[in-house]
Design goal:
Layout lengths: L2 H27 L3 E5 L5 H7 L8 E6 L3 H8 L3 H7 L4 H13 L5 E7 L14 E8 L3 E8 L6 H23 L5
Organism: Hoeflea marina
InterPro entries: CinA-like_C (IPR036653), CinA_C (IPR008136)
Protein name: Nicotinamide-nucleotide amidase
């Protein structure tokens, strides 16, 4: 294995560990999760549902790769997409809020970004991802993630999944529903 393959494998192991922790902690809290994914194409939902017992905590996932899907499934406004684009803080915010509104979940995560290898622009380079998180009490935040444009598509997507899983755990802790 080369260094990139080793790094990708390490990220995937982290994701499995984080997903196991999510299933355990969200089960203990009695909390449900929804995902809204663009650049990861369902990988966050897959990471969680790969774990036995995930049906206790995972309500649904929205894979909204196209702008039309973001509008139809999550209620992202056409004006938002026109003014800011699909890869933007505003779109990530509307995606995560739409996922929470259109599910039984009390927690949601959204991701939209440029996984590459093409598709980047100077303003939105390969490796740029916007992630939205929301939890009880309308506690919502959006953060910008920047991964190396030299990374493979698989690396960028895996790192995005890791960030989303970590973000869900942090949001549970912030809500005061986590043990410990």
């Amino acid at each position: 294995m080369n260094d990139n393959e080793n790094s990708l494998e390490a990220i995937r192991e982290d994701c499995r560990d984080l997903a196991e922790q999510i299933v355990a902690e969200f089960t203990a809290a009695g909390a449900m999760i929804a995902t809204a994914e663009s650049c990861t194409g369902g990988l966050i939902a897959a990471a969680i549902t790969d774990i036995a017992g995930s049906s206790n905590v995972f309500d649904r996932g929205f894979v909204t790769y196209s702008n039309e899907a973001k509008q139809d499934m999550l209620g992202v406004r056409q004006e938002t997409l026109g003014k800011y684009g699909a890869v933007s803080a505003r779109t990530a915010s509307e995606m995560v809020l739409g996922a929470r509104r259109r599910s039984r979940a009390s927690f949601a995560v959204s991701v939209t970004g440029v996984a590459g290898p093409g598709g980047g622009t100077p303003g939105k380079p390969v490796g740029l991802v916007w992630m939205g998180l929301t939890g009880p009490g309308d506690l919502t935040s959006v953060m910008e993630l920047r991964f190396s444009p030299e990374w493979s598509r698989d690396m960028i997507r895996a790192a995005t999944v890791r960030a989303a899983l970590d973000g869900l755990l942090s949001r549970l802790e912030l809500s005061g529903q986590a043990d410990g």
